[in-house]
Amino acid sequence: MFDIKIFDVDHGFSAAIDCYNHKTILLDVGFNSHNGFSPWQHILKQKCHAVDCLIMPVYVQEHLRDVGTL
After folding, report:
1. Strand 12-19, strand 2-9: pairing
2. Are 9 and 32 in contact (CB under 8 A)?
């Protein structure tokens, strides 16, 4: 069993997949410039101490925003 959260970020979406074994997968990162939301905020609210897998389709500055937060 797993839980998927999909986030609206500029120019697309991001998703956090919380697995039954307490592993977290983050699909893309991004940032929502309209409300200031970053997927990292969700991860931190879940009291997650690490992302076990980060999948980024493009290695550019806007996709790396807040990566060092965790």
Report:
1. antiparallel
2. yes
Phi, psi of 49 (to 5 degrees): -95, -10
In this structure, are residues 53 and 28 in contact, taking their beta carbons and an 8 Å threshold? no
- How far is 11 from 31, CA to CA, in rounded Å? 9
pLDDT at 69 over 60: no
> For residue 35, with 0-12 CB atoms within 10 Å meaning exposed, 13-18 middle and 19 or more buried, which class applies?
exposed
Please name the amino acid found at residue 24: T
Task: Please give the pLDDT value at position 63.
Answer: 62
CA 41 to chain centre: 8
